[in-house]
């Protein structure tokens, strides 16, 4: 499915606020609410729109640390880690990457002791590097049309 300029306008609205009503989107992009609904359904069916979700502030939920942890997996340990990482409650995002490391994870932790315990679980799979997140510089930037 090709994404025309009207669909990009709808996507822009949804990326700003996924709870925006079809009527409000229609007013902003200049089409009727049923037309918006039909276009959204087609984009969902095509896999362009994949999920709607709620973002929770880890700090307001009681976590004191957010960190990025990379792993350079030991020989034969990447596949077992790829299964194990799905079970860690601390991991909010995990990517398999190219370069010297194989994995980068975004994790939330209660405190420094929790970080230490978590890293101790990881080191059986490979060499880790940890960076503590101080603040977001760009957060949930929308996907925009290709130029």
From TrEMBL:
Sorted alphabetically, which Pfam families does this protein's record hold?
AsnC_trans_reg, HTH_24
Q: Which domain of life is it from?
A: Bacteria
Q: Under the cellular component aspect of Gene Ontology, which terms does the record hold?
A: cytosol
Q: Which PROSITE patterns does the UniProt entry name for this protein?
A: HTH_ASNC_1, HTH_ASNC_2
Q: Which UniProt keywords apply?
A: DNA-binding, Transcription, Transcription regulation
One annotated GO molecular function is: sequence-specific DNA binding
Concerning InterPro entries, the annotation shows: ArsR-like_HTH, AsnC-type_HTH_dom, Dimeric_a/b-barrel, Tscrpt_reg_AsnC-like, Tscrpt_reg_AsnC/Lrp_C, Tscrpt_reg_HTH_AsnC-type_CS, WH-like_DNA-bd_sf, WH_DNA-bd_sf
* Gene Ontology BP, a term: response to amino acid
User: Which stretches make up the HTH asnC-type domain?
Assistant: 3-64
Cited PANTHER family: HTH-TYPE TRANSCRIPTIONAL REGULATOR LRPC, LEUCINE-RESPONSIVE REGULATORY PROTEIN
UniProt protein name: Lrp/AsnC family transcriptional regulator, leucine-responsive regulatory protein
